[in-house]
Amino acid sequence: MYDVEKVRADFPILGRTVGQWPLSYLDSANTSQKPRQVVDAMAEFYLQHNANVARAMHQLGAEATEAFEGARAKIGAFVGAASAEEIVFTKNASEALNLAANTLASRLGPGDEVVISVMEHHSNIVPWQLVCERTGATLRWFDITDDGRLDLEKAERERLINERTKVVSLTWVSNVLGTRNSIPGIAASAHAVGAVMVVDASQGVPHVPTEVSLLGADLVAFTGHKMVGPTGIGVLWGRYGLLAELPPFLGGGEMIEVVEMTHSTYAAPPHRFEAGTPPIAQAVGLGAAVDYLQGLGMDNIAAHDDELTAYALGKLTTIDGLRILGPTDTVDRGSAISFNLSGVHPHDVMQVLDSRGVAIRGGHHCARPLHKRLGEQSSTRASSYLYTTLAEIDALADALVFTRNYFAPKL
């Protein structure tokens, strides 16, 4: 039995108040809160084992290296990697996607095509724009249907994925619409024409059991801070054979094999892509976060997410003047719900809700092209996670009704 109150006891920040109101934290798609266990693991590393990895041969250096590489192994097992060597540490998912784009650029030239979608986070748009500008490749994208899902029929009519396609890079779960895309089928289409499949799994890995092999992807990016881990660390998983073929992304210490003044040779993956001192304590913290998630059970977390999402959609769809962006049912859907209140700017909604203790996000959520496609300047987003309660969803709904009545009492 999933005991959300027991879970919440691990997160001291959830006991805070905002003015006279208890905090209802509904911004987990932005960043999750951190349990004591993660903070304690990082504190213990800094206070008892702190040293640089790989370079220092003393006892502390050996302990730091063991903790760092141990975290790599934990994270690899968590997503079903074939080996720990398929896990590359970055500073966030944005850097992981930039790593993917800049190394795959070595395979691109004029006439080649890269395919993304209009629902992508900017981190999965801008790197590909830059790479296409540099290489002469063409950027193309999936459109969406009116209910916020990839328009696969239109893509098929337009032969979006074709013999010129070299890379397909898509989000697994939209950070705005909540849409969960069917990655395996698209990956199969990409592989059929010899393209590499890249997946932004930042909103997927924290919420559902993940087996990268079942996704059908070649490279998968995700981030620590959305999965009860620390900021400052992200992950790029890659098929080892592909990683071994890709050139370095950044140059410096640790990513080299031999350095001469005239040339250098490079280390094998994953260290080839980890120049300089890595985020050691952050990796330890992410390893502790994985332990925490596995202790709760990812199946239990996914079921809790589904219950909350269904409940929230049921509450929000009854509010007059509120329009949800994206799917209004729980089929193939994540827990992020974006919406607009008629006649009220999302920033005003966000501020009024904050005055009542409800923490949400207002803006375009780093997905401006998607909002433009939907005919919206911006939106308000509520996003739950493993510590969210039904009472917090009720607080959200009550605060939205209050906000609507304050700004537009005739609705």
Automatic annotation (TrEMBL):
<dbReference type="Pfam" id="PF00266">
    <property type="entry name" value="Aminotran_5"/>
</dbReference>
<feature type="domain" description="Aminotransferase class V">
    <location>
        <begin position="25"/>
        <end position="396"/>
    </location>
</feature>
<dbReference type="InterPro" id="IPR015421">
    <property type="entry name" value="PyrdxlP-dep_Trfase_major"/>
</dbReference>
<dbReference type="InterPro" id="IPR015422">
    <property type="entry name" value="PyrdxlP-dep_Trfase_small"/>
</dbReference>
<dbReference type="InterPro" id="IPR010970">
    <property type="entry name" value="Cys_dSase_SufS"/>
</dbReference>
<dbReference type="InterPro" id="IPR015424">
    <property type="entry name" value="PyrdxlP-dep_Trfase"/>
</dbReference>
<dbReference type="InterPro" id="IPR000192">
    <property type="entry name" value="Aminotrans_V_dom"/>
</dbReference>
<dbReference type="GO" id="GO:0031071">
    <property type="term" value="F:cysteine desulfurase activity"/>
</dbReference>
<keyword id="KW-0456">Lyase</keyword>
<protein>
    <recommendedName>
        <fullName>cysteine desulfurase</fullName>
        <ecNumber>2.8.1.7</ecNumber>
    </recommendedName>
</protein>
<dbReference type="GO" id="GO:0006534">
    <property type="term" value="P:cysteine metabolic process"/>
</dbReference>
<keyword id="KW-0663">Pyridoxal phosphate</keyword>
<dbReference type="GO" id="GO:0016829">
    <property type="term" value="F:lyase activity"/>
</dbReference>
<dbReference type="GO" id="GO:0030170">
    <property type="term" value="F:pyridoxal phosphate binding"/>
</dbReference>
<comment type="similarity">
    <text>Belongs to the class-V pyridoxal-phosphate-dependent aminotransferase family. Csd subfamily.</text>
</comment>
<keyword id="KW-0808">Transferase</keyword>
